[in-house]
Structures are given as structure tokens and as C-alpha cells.
Design goal:
heterotrimer; A mainly alpha (291); B alpha/beta (415); C mainly alpha (280); A: 291 residues; mainly alpha; two-stranded antiparallel ribbon; 12 helices; 2 strands; 1% strand; flat; B: 415 residues; alpha/beta; 5-stranded mixed β-sheet; 13% strand; globular
Chain lengths: 291, 415, 280
């Protein structure tokens, strides 16, 4: 290793060190502690009856139909909201990018939903969909209770998620759009490419890294959805996602061992999804520009 | 006043304020922190002030707010009590936490003379709510329970049983809706336990260790639930309704019956006087003609944090806050029913609660929710099995419920 | 960019209408929230979108509550510091990942990602205990650290994705043209990095501003309690009554700083490359 190389390594580690230290300090202990706890039978109300049970908690969780049901629910909500958000996010990003009149207003207005506290947004949507006191039924002239039936409840949940977090996608995609050089597009237009061709042949490929980051993080967040579902249905009507199971076990039932096992399993699921994305997109963020 | 003088007085004012601040911080008067939700009318704050004044400088009570939602309150308290937080002296405890907090050693038991104080003049059901394993774990402060509210202009006389009420509601057509709480939360457990007790059954045996859920009463209770939820008189969003949704729907005028707590009375007069004018009250409907209904008890008890630095003062402060004077204040100003029986004959209280007699009778017959440290698990098991009410099958679900509660008592498996 | 004649007009109209639709879609529920906050208590149950009578009682109630102004101050400070810290640390790390060769580069990215993947509900308990031991419970630092930590993965990945697309040769080219390293950096690299940096900043700020879970678990007094947590303490006139009006009013108030931050930052998210800048 040459002297220049090791100097580069040192600089790199120096630059990364603060971030690494911050992340380790805050999350290393809790994550490892959770992992440790998941191997015990530990109820906070009976602290003296703690005992080591190995993988028993994991077996309990994996053999519970509730777990698999909620995994399905979570997958449904995740796929439903992320798919729509990607398309909608692109549309909104394009509008934000191209809007000339009131560009400031459009961009700011679009980001406001993401800036509202999740619990409050969920509450206001719940209120809006209430059959007797909300405005949705009043506007559409319907009488049904949206949140009382499984599939309409899913629709409301996904709608609330989409409304709230599309701005996240849109913002990242907007940033990605700014990376596409105008001249390239102009040249392509001169060459006779129409808007659709320009979009799919030039814009999308150049935006791949940003799209991947947006999809990845949005999926990770969608998988761990909690507040929205809790406020809208409390997880009833078969809409319970895995994080509500975790909450019920860890906080309501104070069963720390089982709850930690649930959390670790959620983590593993999310890890699998992330691995799929990274492999699938084949993007290596650490590849240098001139490689 | 010249500018210079003004500046000077301003500066000296600031200095004095700073010094006063400093001296307060260094004051030796022990401060007892009372952790309770931010009661809006100020009755709790006033009670704390009165008791601090009456302490003669030995201690002062300061209110530390908790979140409004009972589950969030419990989450905060449990986390801190389990960590041995010494700042928690007095706790505004929900009645369902007694067994859990007592078993885990998070609150101190009331012995001897203090136990006597805790019992003094109080309703039997309130005392029962602070008792676990023969010990008292808190002093009853306020209580709460549900009544039947109905529209006097549409219903000539209140129904005595559930079947009668549902029949009446169905006969009234569009406006005959019954408001109740059917969401998958604690309110559903309250509903079920009340129905079960009215039918003569109980969730747990007297020892609190084994499941009771006798076949007969359980089936009757579940049958009522099914009938209500599937009746045309039920609110379409019953499966998602809490106390406040029920109140709002009743106040909008579209309903004729409501099962709810006493807070709806002042609320109706404030928000919907045309409805309040025709609002009547009665005891909760019974399940069977000949046995009076039994409704679950709610309320706030005062417990002492196990790691408090001044337990002796804390017991004294709690007894003062829960005394008759302050209960009267909580009732008249805060609308919180008292636990001291004599107050139900008090003029001021009777003015706030015109339904004081019905309330007292209901409280006399009140039933406790299962008193076990694993109450959170049991409640979760009940709500998960019985929600949504319209899908309840009295035969099959009685068996499922029994299994679920048994597993909950062993804290077994995912719920 | 606008073409000439009717094609350009059509295009402008198209984007104009699109903008209007998008703005409506984004703001209708916010308008609903605003409407809820302006309705007097008795009208909360009516089905109307526009309030019949306008009342400021909820805003008055919210600001009367001594907790709320303190919470606003806490929120502003904590979110601001977290944003600056996360973006700075993220920039350093992202620069290293994109520009430098070092072992453990991929490990760094992977580790950053796993931090963001663990369910927060499990982190709360141990973190609470850790903070109590370290004396960070109920302090600004006690919230800034988790906020920074949980947004660093997003910041690092976002910044890395943007930095990867910057033609770093431009800096070299500018130096060849006679600029000092600092000039080259400030005038060439910074404008190109700005969109990424401000995108990351907005996202971090919103996370810190609106977080509820950590705020409610790691604070106990108005020393450090932020607005989302403070809202959980609002009670109606009884324990069962949801103070919808007050919550709506508080939410509207707490959204205003977000709007200001976005207004300020969004200007920077524009195309950085112009004609003639790319050589060869």
C-alpha cells in the first residue's frame, strides 16, 4: 500500500468517524440489548422471573398465525403505498420542476403534507372519513363506515400514507431531476425524440441512484408503519401491521423477551428487502465518477 | 421617569427576579411531584395548592402532567417506575393499574392507619378497586361509570333491558340509533365485562388466577353484543367508535340512546342545548329482567411511587388531596364523581350531577374489571376475540374467549 | 425552455393546470385541519368543510397553555441543531464514500442502513435507560443525538447519490482555468452539491420536527419536550373528550415553521449544470 493510499484511508475514516460514532452511540447498545433480550423470557411486571429460553421466543412468533397475517397486511400496505407513491411522486416532481408560474408556491405546498405530524394527519383523515361527522361521506353522498370493513379500511390507510409521504418521494425525485443536464434534453429534442422517449431513455437512467434511494428508504419506512394504522383502526379489521404486534407485545403486555424477538424479526425482514433492492438496482454508491 | 431611571428599575427588577429564582431553587422544602393528566378545569391544581398550604411548610405538591391518553400515561409511568425513578411521588392511577403496579412493586401499599384513611367513608366498589391480594395500593379519589342517556322527547320511559332498548330503537327508525363503544380498545372490554356481570358471570374466578367465564352468562352477554351490533339501530361505525364519537353523534341529534360516562351531560349543555333539553338518564340496561345491571368502574386513585424520596409526606399529601373537601371540588368544578359516599347527598354535588342517585346506585352495584397483574394481556385477549361485535358468535366465541384469556393469564404467545 | 408560439403556450397551460391540481391535492386535508381549528367547539361534529362560524378559541387555548411556547422553542432548537449536525456529518461521510477509496466503504453504507431499519419501539426502552444513566434524559442533547442518528442513514445515502453525479473534474478544470482550490470549490462544486444538501436538510428537519415517539419517551418536562409530544398532553374538558380543536390549532401552528424552512430551502434545489460547463 502506497503512502498516498494510506493517507487517503486515514482521511476517509476521519471524515466518516463522527457519523459512525454518533450512530454507534445511540443505536449499538439498544440494538444489541434487544437482541440479547429476545433470548430471554422477561416480563417487566415480574422482573425476578427472568429466564433464558434461547430461540423459544422466535419459535412462538413464527408459529403464530397472527404474525403471518400481519406480515401479509404489512406487505399489502407497503406495496400499495410505495407503488402509487413512485408514480405520483414522479408526476409531482415533474410539476415542481417544470412549473414556472408560482413555482415557489407549488413546491412549498407539495411538501406541507410531509411536514404534518403523522398522528395528527391520521386523526384528521379519520375524522374526515367518519360516516356521521366527516366530510368525505357528506361530499360523496355515501353512508358507509369506511373503517369498519377490512378492504375499505386498507384503502383509507393506504390513502393516508400516500398523501402524507409522497412528498418525500417527490422531493428526492425533484433533486434527481435537477441532475439531468438540460442540454442533453435539448439535444435529444432537436434530434427528434418526443417527451416520452426523452423521459425513459435519458431522464430515468440518469436518475437511477436517486430513485433507488427514494424507493429503498420509503419501503423501509412503509414496512414499519405504525402511527397511521394505530390511529385509524388500532389494527382491527384485519389491518394490523407487524409494528402494532411489536407495540402490543412490548409496551402493552410488557413482555420484553417476546417483543424483542418480534422486533428482531421485523429487522430481518427489512434487511432482506434492502438487500433485494440493492442487488436489484445494482447500484454501487461508492463507485467513483471516473471509474 | 427618565430613561436612566427606567433602565435602572428594569435592571433591578431583573436582578431581583433572578435572585428570587435562585433562592427558590435552593429552597429546602421537599417537593412532591404528582403525576397526573392535565385536568382542564383546574380542580386538581387547586387541590394540590390547598394541600400544600395546609402542610405548614413541610412539603409542597407540584403537578407533573402526563399525556391525556390512559395507555400513554401507563407507558410513561411504567417505563420510569421500572427504572426506579425517584421523582415520582404521587401517581394519578387508573383503576386497572392497581394489580399490575402492586405486583411489580412500583407503588407502596397502604398499611394500618393510612389504610383506614383510604377506606374512610368511601364507596365499597371504590375501595375494591384499590385492593389487590388483601392489601390497599392506593387511596380512592374520583370514580366514573356509565349510564344510559336517552331522548325524552322520543322515548316515553327508559328501557329496563337490552332487548327492550333495541326493540324501542328499531321502532324509532332513522333516529333510533344506539350509541356505544365498539372499537378494539379498552372501551370494548368495559362493555363486555359490564354485560357479563349483568348476566351474572365474571371473567376470572375470585382468586384472580383462573378463568371463570361460565357458559350461560357468557353466551347471554355475547348474544346481546351480537344483537346490538347487527341491529339496524346500531351506529354504522360502531366498530370504530369510542366515547367521544358516541357523544358527538348523540349531540348531532341523530341518536336516541347512548351508553356513556357522565361527562356527556355538561358537554351537551355546552355544545348542543336543544339536545340537552331533551336528555334523560337511567341505569344501564339489564340483561335479564330480574337482575339489575352491573357496570364497570373507572376513576382515578392516588398511589405512592415506590422510589419516592419522601414516602411519609406523600401518603399524607395523597390523603389530603383525596379528602372530602377536594373531592367536592373535583366533582363540582371538574365533573368527576366522588368516591366518598356522603358527597352524593351534598347539595353542590347534586346540583352538578342531577343524576346523583342513579349514579350512586350504579356505583353500588359496580363490577371491577379483572384484577390481575396481567390485566393488559387479558384486556387485549378480550378485545381481539370479540372485535368486531357484529361478527360475534355466542357459542363459538365463548370457547375462543376462554382459550384466549387462559393464554393471556400465562402471558403466552402472541396476542 | 419554453418553446415558441402555441406549443409553448400549451406546455405552460399543461404544467399550470398540473400545478393547480397538485397544490389542491396536497392542501385539501391541510385546509380541513385549518377548518377544524377554526370551528367553535360545538360545531366540530357538523359535516361541513368550511366552518359556519370562525372562532379563534382553540388558538387562544393553545397559547395559554404554558407548555406550548416552551415546546415550540424546544422544537425549533432541537430540530435546527439536529439538521445542521446530520447534514454536516452526512456530507463528510458521503464525500468520503464517493470520492475516496478505503476499505470498509460498503460496510459503512450497510451499517448506516441497518441503523435506520431497526423498529424504533424496541430502541426506546434501552435508550431510555442509557440516557438516564448518562444524564441525557429530558435534555436537548438527549433528543438531538437520536434524531441525528436516525436521519444520518438517509442523509448519507442521499448525499452520496447526489455527490456521485457531480462531475468532480469540473473542479480540476476550474483550477486549470486559474481559480484557487477554494474558489473552485465554492463556485463550481457547491452549486452542484446544493440540491443534494438542501434536499437532505429538508428531510432531516421534517423528521426531527415531527417525531413523536422519541420526543414523548425521552422527555419529561418542558425542558426538552417538543411540540408533537406536547400535543399528546392536551386534554379536552374531560378525559374522554378528544380536544380536536386544540390539536388542530397546535398542528397548524407547528406547520408554519416547516413551511418557512421549505420556502427558504427549496430555492436551492435547482439544476446546477449549465451549457458550456461540461468540457469534453
Amino acid at each position: 500500500m502506497s503512502f498516498r493510499d494510506s493517507a487517503e484511508h486515514r482521511l476517509a475514516w476521519l471524515l466518516c468517524a463522527p457519523a459512525v460514532i454518533a450512530m454507534l452511540l445511540v443505536t449499538a447498545y439498544p440494538m444489541l440489548y434487544s437482541l440479547w433480550l429476545s433470548l430471554f423470557r422477561y416480563d417487566l411486571r415480574f422482573p425476578d422471573e427472568r429466564q433464558f429460553v434461547g430461540l423459544h421466543n422466535y419459535i412462538t412468533v413464527l408459529s403464530a398465525p397472527t404474525w403471518w397475517q400481519s406480515l401479509f397486511n404489512t406487505a399489502l400496505i407497503t406495496v400499495g403505498s410505495v407503488a402509487v407513491e413512485l408514480v405520483l411522486g414522479f408526476i409531482i416532481a415533474l410539476v415542481m420542476h417544470r412549473a414556472l408560474v408560482g413555482r415557489r408556491t407549488v413546491r412549498t405546498a407539495v411538501l406541507v403534507p410531509y411536514g404534518i405530524i403523522t398522528v395528527v394527519a391520521a386523526m384528521s383523515w379519520r375524522f374526515a372519513f367518519d360516516p356521521t361527522t366527516g366530510f368525505v361521506n357528506g361530499l360523496l353522498g355515501l353512508e358507509g363506515a369506511w373503517l369498519a370493513d377490512r378492504w375499505t379500511a386498507f384503502a383509507v390507510i393506504i390513502l393516508t400514507e400516500i398523501w402524507k409521504t409522497t412528498p418525500f418521494m417527490a422531493l428526492l425525485l425533484l433533486g434527481g431531476l435537477t441532475l439531468v443536464p438540460e442540454d442533453l434534453l435539448r439535444a435529444a429534442r432537436v434530434d427528434g425524440a418526443n417527451a416520452v422517449q426523452r423521459f425513459f431513455r435519458i431522464v430515468l437512467p440518469l436518475m437511477r441512484p436517486v430513485i433507488m434511494v427514494a424507493l429503498l428508504f420509503r419501503t423501509l419506512d412503509a414496512f414499519r408503519i405504525f402511527d397511521t394504522v394505530f390511529v385509524l383502526t388500532r389494527g382491527a379489521q384485519g389491518t394490523e401491521p407487524v409494528s402494532v404486534i411489536g407495540y402490543n407485545t412490548l409496551i402493552t403486555r410488557l413482555n420484553l423477551g417476546l417483543g424483542s424477538a418480534v422486533s428482531v424479526l421485523i429487522f430481518l425482514c427489512v434487511l432482506a428487502i434492502a438487500a433485494l433492492y440493492i442487488k436489484g438496482f445494482g447500484i454501487d454508491l461508492s463507485r467513483r465518477e471516473d471509474d | 421617569m427618565s430613561k436612566k431611571t427606567l433602565l435602572n428599575s428594569l435592571l433591578s427588577g431583573v436582578l431581583v427576579a433572578l435572585l428570587c429564582g435562585c433562592s427558590d431553587r435552593g429552597s429546602d422544602v421537599p417537593r412532591l411531584n404528582w403525576y397526573v393528566y392535565a385536568e382542564r378545569s383546574g380542580a386538581f391544581a387547586e387541590a394540590a395548592r390547598r394541600c400544600s398550604d395546609g402542610a405548614g411548610g413541610r412539603y409542597e405538591i407540584s403537578l407533573a402532567p402526563l399525556p391525556a391518553d390512559a395507555d400513554q400515561q401507563r407507558e410513561q409511568l411504567v417505563r420510569r417506575l421500572a427504572a426506579g425513578d425517584e421523582d415520582i411521588d404521587l401517581i394519578g392511577m387508573d383503576v386497572i393499574w392497581t394489580a399490575e403496579f402492586g405486583e411489580a412493586g412500583w407503588v407502596l401499599p397502604w398499611h394500618g392507619a393510612s389504610a383506614g384513611e383510604a377506606r374512610a367513608g368511601r364507596l365499597a366498589s371504590a375501595v375494591e378497586s384499590v385492593t389487590y391480594e388483601g392489601q390497599l395500593w392506593a387511596i380512592p379519589f374520583t370514580t366514573n361509570t356509565q349510564l344510559l342517556w336517552y331522548r325524552t322527547d322520543r322515548v316515553p320511559s327508559p328501557p329496563a333491558t337490552w332487548d327492550q332498548m333495541i326493540d324501542m330503537a328499531e321502532a324509532l327508525g332513522e333516529v333510533g340509533t344506539i350509541q356505544a363503544q365498539g372499537e378494539r380498545y379498552e372501551g370494548l372490554t368495559v362493555f363486555f365485562v359490564s354485560l357479563l356481570a349483568s348476566a351474572g358471570g365474571a371473567v376470572l374466578e375470585a382468586d384472580g388466577q383462573r378463568v371463570s367465564l361460565e357458559a350461560g352468562p357468557t353466551a347471554s352477554a355475547l348474544a346481546v353484543m351480537r344483537r346490538l351490533a347487527n341491529s339496524p339501530a346500531a351506529d354504522p361505525s360502531l366498530a370504530n367508535a369510542r366515547e367521544d364519537q358516541a357523544r358527538l353523534a348523540f349531540e348531532s341529534g341523530a341518536s336516541s340512546f347512548m351508553l356513556n360516562y357522565t361527562y356527556v351531560w355538561p358537554s351537551a349543555w355546552a355544545n348542543a342545548p336543544e339536545v340537552a333539553r331533551h336528555m334523560g338518564w337511567a341505569r344501564w340496561p339489564a340483561v335479564f329482567e330480574d337482575s339489575p345491571s352491573r357496570v364497570t368502574l373507572g376513576g382515578i386513585n392516588l398511589g405512592i411511587g415506590a422510589h419516592s424520596r419522601h414516602p411519609a409526606f406523600a401518603f399524607e399529601a395523597a390523603a389530603c388531596i383525596a379528602s372530602e373537601e377536594n373531592q367536592r371540588l373535583a366533582a363540582t368544578r371538574g365533573g368527576l364523581p366522588p368516591t366518598i359516599a356522603a358527597l352524593y347527598d351534598d347539595d353542590a354535588v347534586r346540583e352538578t350531577f342531577p343524576f346523583a342517585d342513579v349514579l350512586r346506585d350504579t356505583l353500588r352495584d359496580a363490577v371491577q374489571r379483572p384484577q390481575t397483574p396481567l390485566y393488559a394481556d387479558v384486556s387485549l385477549a378480550i378485545t381481539r376475540t370479540l372485535h368486531p361485535m357484529r361478527a360475534v358468535d355466542p357459542e363459538a366465541d365463548a370457547a375462543r374467549l376462554r382459550t384466549a384469556v387462559e393464554r393471556a393469564l400465562r402471558s403466552e404467545g402472541l396476542l | 425552455m419554453a418553446g415558441t408560439g402555441s406549443a409553448g403556450r400549451m406546455e405552460r397551460l399543461f404544467w399550470g393546470v398540473g400545478s393547480a391540481i397538485v397544490v389542491l391535492y396536497a392542501l385539501i386535508p391541510v385546509a380541513w385541519l385549518l377548518s377544524l381549528s377554526l370551528k367553535p367547539g360545538a360545531d366540530l361534529g357538523d359535516r361541513r368543510f368550511v366552518p359556519q362560524a370562525v372562532s379563534l378559541e382553540h388558538y387562544v387555548a393553545v397559547f395559554d397553555d404554558p407548555q406550548f411556547p416552551a415546546a415550540l422553542w424546544n422544537s425549533a432548537g432541537i430540530a435546527g441543531i439536529s439538521t445542521v449536525a446530520a447534514v454536516l456529518l452526512g456530507m463528510f461521510a458521503a464525500y468520503a464514500i464517493v470520492r475516496l477509496q478505503f476499505p470498509g466503504r460498503n460496510l459503512m453504507l450497510a451499517a448506516a442502513l441497518s441503523v435506520a431499519m431497526f423498529p424504533p419501539v424496541s430502541i426506546i426502552g434501552p435508550l431510555f435507560n442509557l440516557w438516564r444513566t448518562l444524564g441525557l434524559y429530558d435534555t436537548w442533547a438527549g433528543l438531538i443525538l437520536p434524531y441525528m442518528t436516525f436521519t444520518l442513514p438517509l442523509a448519507i445515502w442521499t448525499l452520496a447519490a447526489f455527490f456521485r453525479e457531480i462531475p468532480w473534474d469540473l473542479e480540476r478544470a476550474a483550477r486549470v482555468d486559474g481559480a484557487t482550490p477554494l474558489q473552485a470549490f465554492v463556485h463550481v462544486i457547491v452549486p452542484l452539491a446544493a440540491p443534494g444538501v438542501f434536499t437532505a436538510a429538508i428531510l432531516v428537519f421534517m423528521f426531527a420536527w415531527n417525531d413523536f415517539l422519541f420526543a414523548i419517551s425521552l422527555t419529561s418536562t418542558s425542558d426538552a419536550r417538543t411540540v408533537p409530544a406536547a400535543i399528546a398532553f392536551f386534554t379536552g374538558s374531560s378525559l374522554f373528550e378528544l380536544p380536536t380543536g386544540a390539536i388542530a390549532a397546535a398542528s397548524v401552528v407547528v406547520t408554519v415553521p416547516v413551511i418557512i424552512v421549505v420556502l427558504l430551502f427549496q430555492r436551492r434545489i435547482v439544476a446546477g449544470l449549465t451549457a458550456g460547463a461540461v468540457k469534453g
